[in-house]
Amino acid sequence: MLFVARVTRKAEGNGGGGCTAAMVTNPVPGLPFLPGSSFTDTTKTAFHRSQTLDYRNGYAVVRRPTMGIGGDRLHYNQLSQAELDDLANKAPILTYGPPRQPPPAEFVPAHVAFDKKVLKFSAYFQEDVPISTEEHYRIRHVNIYYYLEDDSMSIIEPVVENSGIPQGKLVKRQRLAKNDVGDHYHWKDLNLAINITIYGKTFRIVDCDRFTQEFLESQGIELNSPEKMPLDPYTELRKEPVRKYITPSDFDQLKQFLTFDKQVLRFYAIWDDTDSLFGECRHYIIHYYLMDDTVEIREVHERNNGRDPFPLLMNRQRMPKVLVENAKNFPQCVLEISDQEVLEWYTAKDFIVGKPLTILGRTFFIYDCDSFTRQFYSDKFGMPNLPRIDVSKQEPPPVKQELPPYNGYGLIEDSAQNCFALIPKAPKKDIIKMLVNDNKVLRYLAALESPIPEDKDRRFIFSYFLATDMISIFEPPVRNSGIIGGKFLGRTKVVKSFSPVDNPIYYGPSDFFIGAVIDVFGHRFIILDTDEYVLKYMESNASQYSPEALASIQSRIQKQDVPAPEPETKQAMEEPKAQGLEEPKTQGLEEPKAQGLEEPKAQGLEEPKALDLETPIEIVQMPMKDHSCKDIREAFQVHDKENSGFVDKETFFKVCDNLNVPVDNSLTKELIRMCTHGESKIDYYNFVRSFSN
After folding, report:
1. Which residues, including other chains, have CB under 8 Å from residue 576's CB and lie 6 or more apart?
2. Compositional bias of type Basic and acidic residues: which residue ranges (predicted)?
3. How far apart are CA 577 and CA 585, in angstroms?
4. Distance between CA atoms of 40 and 36, rounded to whole angstroms?
5. Do 272 and 364 contact (CB within 8 A), yes or no?
6. d(CA 427, CA 409)
7. What would the 3-class secondary structure string for 245-311 be?
8. Do residues 681 and 605 lie in contact, with contact meaning Cβ atoms separated by under 8 Å?
9. What is the tally of structural domains in the chain?
10. Model pTM above 0.90
11. pLDDT of 377-414, one tens digit each?
12. Is there a single domain that holds both residue 432 and residue 537?
């Protein structure tokens, strides 16, 4: 029987490595395969093993090799059919007897078999940094732990000192979902150089430890080649050494420091920015340190100036005076300017009192310095007695506020309030004058001066209110005159016609007297008569009136003292009325008329009845002259809400009873009967006339 043995030895590697020994064969049949009886077959040149793996459509599949070592074709079955049948008919049990059953293996649960056995994978994930000028993304390294006892996983990020990022346990120990169906990650799903997605983050597994590698290979999982862990670009940038700038020195700075230590020049300067919008003149103190030629600018704060109390405008530093041409684009805000970028620095000789100095774009004017600085300039530069320059500015005179021209609407005092405030307020009133002159009214009878014939017989009642200096005009309605009477002018101040527009002059009490001409908004009125209160007021305030006004009053009183003719006939009594002044009625123009009460004739009382009352009134005046006419009239006016001059009988007798007015004698009853109008109305106007002279 021929024995052929093939002995090969391959190099370590992945299946397809080269062979390091030649094939040894025994070409002579019958010789044992022993040293000395074996020879090398020189015709064999290929000793590699055939590849057992292949990729189809991107998937790894097992391929059965067809060529053996040395290039010989492999046969699937090297036994003949007869030998195979012989082997199939042999029963090992008949030859060797029944095999002995091994003892059953002891059952070990998974939580005991895999206790404290953890698979460790090294991975990383990429995190975007949207708001940063130094980095666009960040690489964060993590460790993925797989616990074999319960198939749970945890992800822990190693803590990096001073990273500013919350690190440590990213995902606590739990079973992690692999898909939406409900499957969980298993150790069979883990391998090197793959991506796994956990809670929306994609982790790249790059390596594992030795125990993990051995466990997975023992379970038949072929691991992919490990990858190199990428580095975080920003972390690597931080590891680079900081660039340092060293300014070369051409002189001995130590000597300058020891010589001028604690010696500082102090200058007082201003920055005048009044030419710009909202600019102002501000004061500063400039310190020049002789020890290192540095400059410092401090602000001088005034009380309640409205600025934040920052002490420094410019920190202590060396100030360049002239820069080189290529230093205009030098990043001064981040890098220190050295002598290579500066042609000349500011020194002590550049700070002179009385000259401007430009520092960082601002022009400072130095107007004074302290005594040490004056002595230093005198010894060093020969400039004694540096003068102090006065930079104080005189305050401009206040701008006089001028009111715009009056437009003619309303009172000028009311219109002027719109120029003083955004929300105008009412003009201030003389409260004392209003309290003293409250309810004091001067009344006058006036005629309208007009070329129209119909206006000659019109009469008006002027009411001058002493509390507010306002005038109102009332025209009593005349029956069948064709003119509607009533209020002709409401309460207002009347300006004299000759007064200027910007400084108006209003009519006062001294302008009203008998015969005076009053111009009211283009209408000319002539004062014809006054009431009794005006006569008393002019007597008590004679200093306010002109001699012409007092003379008119004297003539008025003299005419009043002349006895009136007896009313013999109706025609004789109508003569004063035809002249425009009814002697009994207009004499005094009692206050009920001025308040809008019409004359008895205007109320509908016939003229003969009014004339027949004169005789009873004169007779009744003697016994009732002690009673107050004003109190009785005001009592009746309280009940006369419509100012008609009439009250009902019940109210009339009730008022007379409250005031103790005698109404039971025959003369008074006759007077009441004659003042009765209709069935229930009594004219209290003619009744009150019996109580006054």
Report:
1. 582, 583
2. 567-607
3. 10
4. 11
5. no
6. 16
7. CCCCCCCCHHHHHHHCCCCEEEEEEEEECCCCCCCCEEEEEEEEECCCCEEEEEECCCCCCCCCCCC
8. no
9. 4
10. no
11. 999 888 888 889 888 888 888 888 888 888 777 778 88
12. yes
